[in-house]
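Reproducibility note. Readers wishing to regenerate the assembly model reported in the main text can use the exact inputs given here. Chain order matters: entities are listed in the order in which they were concatenated for prediction.
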Amino acid sequence: MQNLIIKTICLFACVVFSSCEKIDLRSALLSYEKVNERFNQSMEWNARQGYQKIVTADNEYKIMVMADSHIGSTENYDLFIEHALQDKSLAVVMNGDITTGRADDYNTLSDIRPKKNDIESFLTVGNHDLYFNGWKEFYARFGASVYYFTVKTPLASDLFICLDTGSGTLGEKQMKWLTKLLASERKKYRHCVVFTHVNFFRTRHTGSTNPPVEELQLLMDLFLTYQVNLLITGHDHEKSVEVLGNTSYITMDALLDGFSQAGYLKLHIKDQGVGYSYINF
Amino acid sequence: MFLRTRIIIFLLILLGVCMSTSLRAQFGITLYEDIGSHNAVTSPFFKTATIVSFQYDDNMIFMGNQWNFSKQTYAFVPDVFINYTKSFAFRKQVFDVQAFFLYVPFSQFLYELDWGVLAGYSLQRLRFKLGTHIRMFGLTRAAIEDNAFTDNRNIFEHFNMIYQISYYVNRPNRGWNIGFTLTNIDYFTINQETNPIFNMQISCDVNPSFSLFLEGWYKSAGAFNLSVNPFGFFIRSGCLCKI
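Running the prediction on these inputs yields the following structure tokens for the assembly.
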């Protein structure tokens, strides 16, 4: 009986490990670098480049957000950028799993990233971006994965925070940075939106991972205390909205080519609050 | 509310001790201390837990509470769990089914409630548990009153999977044992199924009614579909006393 059980476990492990060509087996067991190392590099980048401040003459503005494009192919990505330009969005946010992590795909993304003069774009990493030693490629081309940017309108200023959850955890350094940032800066801003690739809640049952419960508890407490308006995530590939107190926890549909519900999120930022709508192709 | 809960727990313990004078009943108490660290805290954490158990024939009730002294706020309100286990034999194999309830007040404004069921199967050296639970994150009364929230008071996760696979070097009747476990549950924590926990346990019976144990727990942030990082590690040491 015991031999049968051990054989079944071994067979299951073989099936799991050989089931997906997009998964880098090395990363699936242990990452190439720790999240703290990426955080340190991001802070070095931020110290050199500074945090971006966008100024707009409009009282209301739009920001487009997408995740899980998994470039390779770029059909939906191209449509997303086209929509953002047509809609005169102030910026686009690419919220992780933008590529498969391979150098060729980073080259493609680098070539088709919109020019700064056309529209501002903000990128952060997901787990797939880190596969195949992808962080080196990301950092060389796009820089920090942990940072914030602000938008100043004639009425007020808003705070947007991009976090690195590509390893399934923020790590103690990023957690400390986020806590300090919210404690010192949140009061100065009208609205606050946080972007993480990994979604927080298991609203459906997939193999995709969420932050460990202890980390989730601390983040929920921070978001409630500092009145974060929205947390925008991807990773799960299927839209969902959960609301607790003042904070809406939003998961987006994947932008992946060939995905039947492919889409993105449009943020409408007004004085009354941060609205959003899902746009599906 | 907490005073009332403590009185009920005290009365149940008293009832258990009184009934344990019967030959078919067994009363037990487990005390342990956790010392460790994880990514969500900047300094080491210390948790102290007490678990009382009462067994009558094939029925067992466990009740436990845990104080997390390193919590920045709200450290004086303990986590609480209650577990009912029923053991039975089927075709000469031993199975058990468990129903449990867990309450974790993790801040002044938020708490977690879990409830679910588990089925267990034990061989001489291998033990398995498989089950499901519902998780609810909710706002406390203080949060609702302070902010006048009329809705959006909780978030549910339905039917998450829970599992535990253990291998022991010795059979259960030996005076010492070493075990290895892969799971996503602990007494006061239920992780998502994709966030596994590994532990190694050493236990030693000092005498038939008193044993000591030492455990090392490693938590991983994700598995298989993530660029996996360690999340935390802690040491648990404690004792089990049977009366």
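We highlight two features of this model. The mean pLDDT of chain B is 89. Chain B has one domain: 2-242.
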